């Protein structure tokens, strides 16, 4: 520990935790209002009919706006500054295309208001992050140290850049194919006959038009048969391969969807990689503020949890991030770390088995030196011993941004700090328990059954849609998925655990299993279920 490193104490930690975003600024609210407003605008905005003067061809500017809009929805979670720019660009594109009078439409006005709400939340989050940084710098005082040498060789973003290159190449392939479809039509139109005919029949079910031109009848596929009612005059391009509408010259929709998906995913990875590289570079610029803290690795999710230096029992985490070891030889975020073998060559298999059976002890708290001012979205590094008996220290660097350790729907204040249910000694818990004359029962409650009913409605609609069109290969997927679908509904509506003198009786979707007390090792509540560890075989899990 460098001389003069101040301890980040509980009083300073509480001030830091008080500076968390308000509930209304949580990204999920901005995402939901934006998604709903965008869906409303897309559904309500009148789509111009395809005509010979303005055919429905590829709209590359519109596709670019769609890419920015979808990215902005993602950046609301990950990159607030870019999200603000992307939303502003989307509004500007809407105003340029339809004029400012477009906001007279209720759907467009709703999108404008949703964007304003989202931007207000993003600005609030950035302001709060600045406040957290100021509080961290105040706690660190004048203490500053250069980053350890091992952390200076650590690089972020390599895997993100690789994935970005792959997905952007896919998007480029989609652009090439779509342009190829357009070029093929242009060549065809240059040599084909151009006729004008009258629509004599419309089959909206199959998307077919019957057109009579110069005494001949043509059957033509169309994506929008409602745009061409009977007696409408249409222009055709006719050759030996058939006839197509000049208003709908070609169909490159599938390739355009591929371009959209590839561009959004590739650019998202690219921006994440650049942001990680820039964050790691900022850490290497000069001396950094340092804080004496305690750290602990999460036994379930691999997160690094940071605690105040005087919170020796680890009751109230301050922040968390994912980290990897910085190595002088292999300074990359995705290098394999093989330094995990025990002295006898056993790579911790016993410990892995304990974790799988949910009876592994909680990882210990370790003293650490935190480098960099922590705030929401920051990059940090820390130095700590892997074990208190280890004579050497290890350097780890964050590979995800810092996030405050508060509940999902935090509001700041005391309820947002610390655990929802603080750990208590087993003796204290046992002292508050009283004997029961009847078995204790925990069962599916009203909300769980409502979830099951919702699943039943949604899944029933999906099954009906799959069966409605007659036999197809979709039935094979349905046969594979149907048991899982039924199990999820049955579990949500009927799960039950009963405790009596003999043990636990666990009722899952299709069976009841008895776990005697004398073979039970542990009962662990996980995010998505309860795990009951047994001595004789695998654990019993209740979703």
Describe this structure in words.
The chain has 543 residues and is of the alpha+beta class. 42% of the residues lie in helices and 20% in strands. Strands 1, 7, 8, 9, 10, 11, 12, 13 and 14 form a nine-stranded antiparallel sheet that branches. A five-stranded antiparallel sheet has the order 4-3-2-5-6. Strand 2 and strand 3 form a beta hairpin. Helix 3 (60-78) packs parallel to helix 8, helix 7 (158-191) packs antiparallel against helix 8 (253-283) and helix 11 runs antiparallel to helix 12 (474-494). The chain starts with 9 loop residues before the first helix and ends with a strand. Residues 328-359 and 410-420 have low confidence and may be disordered. The chain crosses the membrane at residues 60-77, 84-103, 109-128, 161-179, 253-275, 450-467, 473-495. Keywords: Membrane, Transmembrane, Transmembrane helix.
Features:
543 residues, 9-stranded antiparallel sheet, 5-stranded antiparallel sheet, 12 helices, 20% strand, transmembrane, membrane, transmembrane helix
**DSSP strand (E) fraction?**
15-25%
How many strand segments?
Answer: 21
- The protein's oligomeric status is single chain
Sequence stretches where pLDDT stays below 50 over 5 or more residues: 328-359, 410-420
Number of helices: 12
CA-to-CA gap between the ends? 45 Å
Which percent bin holds the helix content?
A: 40-55%
Averaged pLDDT: 82
Taking the sheet with the most strands, its summary is:
9 strands, antiparallel
Class inferred from helices and paired strands? alpha+beta
Large-scale geometry: globular
Rg (CA only): 31 Å
């Amino acid at each position: 520990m460098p001389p003069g490193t101040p301890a980040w104490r509980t009083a300073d930690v509480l001030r830091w935790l008080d500076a968390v975003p308000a509930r209304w600024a949580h990204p999920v609210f901005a995402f939901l209002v934006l998604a709903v407003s965008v869906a409303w605008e897309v559904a309500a905005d009148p789509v111009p009919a395809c005509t010979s003067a303005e055919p429905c061809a590829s709209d590359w500017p519109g596709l670019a706006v769609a890419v920015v809009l979808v990215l902005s929805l993602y950046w609301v979670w990950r990159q607030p500054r870019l999200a603000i720019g992307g939303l502003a660009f989307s509004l500007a594109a809407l105003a340029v295309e339809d004029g400012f009078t477009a906001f007279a439409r209720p759907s467009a006005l709703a999108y404008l208001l949703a964007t304003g709400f989202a931007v207000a939340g993003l600005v609030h989050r950035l302001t709060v992050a600045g406040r957290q940084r100021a509080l961290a710098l105040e706690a660190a005082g004048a203490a500053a140290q250069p980053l350890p040498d091992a952390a200076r060789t650590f690089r972020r973003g390599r895997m993100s850049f690789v994935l970005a290159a792959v997905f952007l190449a896919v998007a480029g392939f989609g652009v090439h194919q779509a342009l190829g479809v357009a070029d093929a039509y242009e060549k065809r139109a240059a040599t084909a006959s151009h006729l004008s005919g009258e629509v004599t029949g419309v089959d909206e079910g199959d998307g077919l038009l019957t057109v009579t031109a110069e005494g001949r009848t043509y059957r033509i596929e169309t994506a929008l048969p409602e745009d061409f009612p009977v007696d409408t005059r249409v222009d055709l391009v006719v050759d030996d391969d058939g006839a197509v509408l000049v208003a709908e010259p070609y169909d490159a929709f599938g390739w355009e969807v591929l371009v959209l998906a590839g561009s959004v995913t590739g650019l998202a990875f690219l921006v994440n990689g650049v942001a990680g590289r820039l964050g790691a570079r900022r850490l290497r610029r000069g001396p950094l503020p340092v804080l004496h803290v305690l750290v602990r690795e999460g036994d379930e999710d691999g997160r690094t949890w940071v605690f105040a230096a005087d919170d020796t029992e680890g009751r109230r985490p301050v922040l968390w991030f994912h980290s990897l070891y910085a190595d002088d030889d292999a300074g990359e975020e995705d290098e394999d770390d093989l330094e995990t073998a025990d002295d006898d060559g056993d790579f911790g298999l016993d410990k892995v088995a304990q974790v799988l059976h949910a009876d592994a002890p909680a990882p210990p708290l370790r003293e650490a030196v935190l480098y960099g001012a922590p705030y929401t979205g920051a990059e940090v590094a820390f130095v700590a011993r892997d074990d208190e008996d280890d004579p050497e220290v290890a350097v780890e660097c964050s590979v995800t941004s810092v996030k405050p350790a508060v509940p999902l729907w935090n509001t700041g204040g005391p309820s947002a700090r610390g655990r929802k249910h603080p750990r208590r000694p087993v003796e204290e818990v046992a002292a508050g328990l009283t004997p029961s004359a009847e078995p204790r029962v925990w069962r599916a409650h009203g909300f769980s059954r409502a979830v099951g009913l919702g699943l039943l409605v949604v899944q029933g609609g999906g099954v009906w849609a799959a069966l409605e069109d007659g036999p197809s290969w979709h039935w094979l997927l349905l046969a594979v998925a149907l048991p899982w679908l039924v199990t999820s509904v049955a579990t949500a509506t009927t799960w039950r655990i009963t405790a009596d003198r003999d043990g636990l009786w666990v009722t899952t979707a299709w069976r009841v299993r008895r776990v005697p007390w004398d073979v039970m090792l542990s009962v662990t509540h996980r995010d998505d279920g309860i795990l009951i560890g047994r001595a004789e075989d695998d654990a019993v899990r209740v979703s």
